[in-house]
Amino acid sequence: MSQYQYILNLSRLSTALLTGALLLLAACSSGEVIGTPAPAETVPTALSEILERPADFEGKTVVLRGQLSAQCKSLCEFTYTEKSRSVTVFMGDLKAPRIRQGQQLRVTAKVHKGDEQVVLTATGLELVEGKVEGDSNETRKTGR
């Protein structure tokens, strides 16, 4: 093999590796959609409302906007945080990728009032760009 062919092959290999790395990075970046999220125009509900009055939301599907603060190693659940409140969201039948801590999320989930805590099961998950946590213009307070 000539030196020219060696350099050409090395260049092709480098390009292929870089392309693969970029595709992998893009798959884990903002904008990814998992499951069936609510329509974009659906106004998010404040997590504090759900936690304060879980019976009002029993069996309902809600949309939340906040951030991922932790994720279990098996990817079956994650801790969702909005302002100073947190809740565990179970993935149910959805298969989540590894998501970085602090990633902004739009979560569509079904609410179940447990005996000691609120249980949320995700039906849709969107990784979003920008800061959404604590943005009072983004979250609906129902005032019930």
Summary keywords:
disordered C terminus; OB fold (Dihydrolipoamide Acetyltransferase, E2P); alpha+beta; 144 residues; five-stranded mixed barrel
Oligomeric state of the chains in view: single chain
Write down the secondary-structure element order: HEHHEEEEE
Task: Tell me the count of domains.
Answer: 2
Any idea what the CATH superfamily of the largest domain is called? Bacterial OB-fold
Return Rg in Å. Answer: 20 Å
Alpha carbon gap, first and last residue: 77 Å
Q: What is the number of beta strands?
A: 6
The main sheet comes to:
5 strands, mixed, barrel
Helical region count?
Answer: 3
Averaged pLDDT:
83
- Strand order in the largest sheet: 2-3-4-6-5
Assign the CATH class of the largest domain: Mainly Beta
- Unreliable stretches covering 5 or more consecutive residues: 21-29, 132-144
Reported by name, the CATH topology of the largest domain is OB fold (Dihydrolipoamide Acetyltransferase, E2P)
Structural class, please?
A: alpha+beta
**What is the percentage of strand-forming residues?**
25-35%
Provide the CATH architecture of the largest domain.
Answer: Beta Barrel
What is the helix fraction of residues, given as a range?
10-25%
Shape descriptor: elongated
Please give a quick description of this structure.
With 144 residues, the protein is of the alpha+beta class. The chain contains three helices and six strands, in the order H-E-H-H-E-E-E-E-E.
